[in-house]
Amino acid sequence: MLLRCEAGANLLGVDIRKLLILGCGYIGTRLAKACLDNGMHVIGISRNAEGAEELRSSGIEPLVAADPSQIPADVYKQADAVLDSIPLERSEAGLTAGQPHWLPVVAGHLRHVQWAGYLSTTGVYGDAGGAWVDETSTCNPTSQRGIERLKAERAWLNSELPAEVFRLAGIYGPGRNIIPRLKAGGYKVVQWNPPHYSSRIHVDDIVAAVMAAMQKPRPGRIVNVADDAPLPHADYVTELAAMIGAPEPVMLTPEEGEKQLSPAALDFFRDNKRVSNRLLHAELLPELKYPSFRDAVSTLMQESGA
């Protein structure tokens, strides 16, 4: 699948008072708390009652819905802005994006919104042979995850809503990092030859990027959200293990990795690219809170009680 991925050019000021978050999970909840701290009202959509209760306990107005098309029209009409953080759907057929199916149904209820955002992945670029990719690079996803995320991006960008797309690198943060697995020992990683580069981003910097985009929107914009330090995964885990005093990771050849690692893990690290964040710095975040994983290690260790 080959597509040119270009950002838009319009600029307008907005006053967002009520945000609707579809798929209010790990990133959505942290974004919601930041918005609440800024005086906004947040409605968070969860797929089950347990998730909804967790949202309520955080001050987020919860709503249970298995599919966005099931959300009452008046909920959409209350929102000044909407963020889509819905993961891909898993079935026997594999991973699929629901946006091409439900977004045309609900878009009519969102014509009044001043801003919309979709959280995608840098996996849409596919393999670049270790070269740098930016928002104008050709998208040639090699995994089903990347292919379906690209379909979801197109659904939002073609929706005639003031939508922006955030292509996220590998996400980490409190409660979502590999430190416990490294400390447990036996962590397995493929030693690719030549090395395969990947990029990371702390959840706090994702939240900051989205908040900045809501304050300085540009409909049609596509922006990579990645830190300043792309690094081969093998080098990353080896350095991180040394920093936290964990056992050295187990290095596998690509052939051994095919036999011992899950297809999902292999798909994630099979692509080889360095993700440029120049646009992120130029338009949204001149500086990151965590320019690299090295800057986050001490905080992550404190948060985990290690």
Describe this structure in words.
The structure is a single chain. This protein is of the alpha/beta class and 306 residues long. It has a single domain (3-172, 200-227, 273-290), classed as NAD(P)-binding Rossmann-like Domain (Rossmann fold), CATH 3.40.50.720. 36% of the residues lie in helices and 22% in strands. It is built from twelve helices and 19 strands. It has helices at residues 26-37, 49-57, 73-78, 99-106, 144-157, 179-184, 203-215, 233-244, 254-260, 263-270, 278-283, 297-304, and strands at 3-4, 18-22, 41-46, 61-64, 81-84, 89-91, 94-96, 115-121, 132-133, 138-139, 163-168, 170-172, 188-190, 197-198, 200-202, 222-225, 231-232, 250-252, 274-275. The N and C termini lie far apart (44 Å).
Rg (CA only):
19 Å
Q: What would CATH call the architecture?
A: 3-Layer(aba) Sandwich
The CATH superfamily turns out to be NAD(P)-binding Rossmann-like Domain
Strand content: 15-25%
Termini gap? 44 Å
Q: Count of helical segments?
A: 12
CATH overall fold name: Rossmann fold
Number of domains: 1
Low-confidence blocks of residues: 1-12
> In total, how many beta strands?
19
| Class of secondary structure makeup | alpha/beta
CATH class, named Alpha Beta
Largest sheet: 7 strands, parallel
